[in-house]
Amino acid sequence: MLAPLLLLLAGAQLLAAAFPPLPRPYTLQLFQTTSFENSTYVDTQGLGLLDDIELAVLDHRTWNIHFRQPWVRPALPRSDWDTIGDMIKIYLQKFHRLIQEGAMEKKVPYPFVAQCTAGCELFPNSTSRAFAYVGYNGQDFLSYDIDNSTWLLLQDTGLSRYVRERLKNYTVFTELVEVLFNDTCVDDMQIIVRYGKEALQRQVKPAAELYARTPEPGRLLLVCRVTGFYPRPVSVAWLRDGKEVPPGPELSSTPILPNADLTYQLRSILATAPRDGHSYACRVRHSSLGGHSLLLHWGNSGFLLLAGLAAAAALLLAVAAATLGALWMRRRRKYQEMNESEPRSSVLSNEP
């Protein structure tokens, strides 16, 4: 097994050395969810992400890799993908055996779910950090300190201590984790990032709207909804009379939530009182705006609305006055023309 692993690492390191430093940090993560229904039936789901881009999924029947982006498969030679696929299958076989043995030994009731998150972060200065976490029934269970090659307890129970002790003695499994998520992860991510440059550097400008809600008398909620932006980082702030509103109980926000088209959205809410005499604005900053900001203004106490209505009313009155004036002038001209034509008609009628 060591020979193909060494060849894989050597080839990846040579390819990675050919690329310049990265412009920003990137994170490659593998998510594994394994359901242990009983002592014989196990179902595993797997997903690979580069930042928030879905790279590949694991076929839960065959444990084969299915690529989600067209640029992932060409990033590495087929032999490298075959080796990685074999390593994943070996890892899952050992993981299932280890957990089943522990469940039998500690009489863990079925069904239960084990979740694993592992991967690496790669920084522009070429440093990296690998990580691995294990969860049990939705709760933190163990983490792996790759620098010190030790498993750490995230919950202190008889089951977690038992699994940790088993892992200490299960050196083959630990070495496989280190190869997968420390060496191979970092080296391959450097290459995959270059192939996915266009997708990773995609910029989509946000759209924003500002509206108000009145949940109860004397309470006005200003809502700034920002949506359709990519990448994920965004800054939304409120301005009161041109000055930024500091964090406090009057401010709240939803998490940054994904849209179906791989963009994001959020809502920022400012609690105020109606007719408090202040003016408000929502300011949105995002990398796609090229250093500029979106600024949405809200006139408090209905001032802007009343001013707009007054202006509209004045415009309507002006149009109506002009129309009536034009009609009056037209009728006056017709009346004058009629008066001027009457004497000539009477003179002509008296002629013999």
Q: What does this protein structure show overall?
A:
The protein has 352 residues and is an alpha+beta fold. The chain has 2 domains: 2-200, Murine Class I Major Histocompatibility Complex, H2-DB, Chain A, domain 1 (2-Layer Sandwich), CATH 3.30.500.10; 207-302, Immunoglobulins (Immunoglobulin-like), CATH 2.60.40. The chain has helices at 2-17, 78-106, 158-169, 171-195, 197-200, 303-350; strands at 26-36, 42-50, 53-58, 65-67, 112-122, 128-136, 139-145, 150-153, 207-216, 219-229, 235-240, 243-244, 251-253, 257-258, 264-272, 279-285, 293-299. The strands form 3 sheets. An 8-stranded antiparallel beta sheet has the order 4-3-2-1-5-6-7-8, covered by helices on one side. Strands 9, 10, 13, 14 and 15 form a 5-stranded antiparallel beta sheet that branches. Strands 12-11-16-17 form a 4-stranded antiparallel beta sheet. The longest helix has 48 residues, at 303-350. The relative contact order is 0.10. Mean pLDDT is 83; it is low at 1-17, 300-316 and 342-352.
Set out the fold topology.
Layout: H1 2-17, E1 26-36, E2 42-50, E3 53-58, E4 65-67, H2 78-106, E5 112-122, E6 128-136, E7 139-145, E8 150-153, H3 158-169, H4 171-195, H5 197-200, E9 207-216, E10 219-229, E11 235-240, E12 243-244, E13 251-253, E14 257-258, E15 264-272, E16 279-285, E17 293-299, H6 303-350
Helix pairs in contact: 1-4, 2-3, 2-4
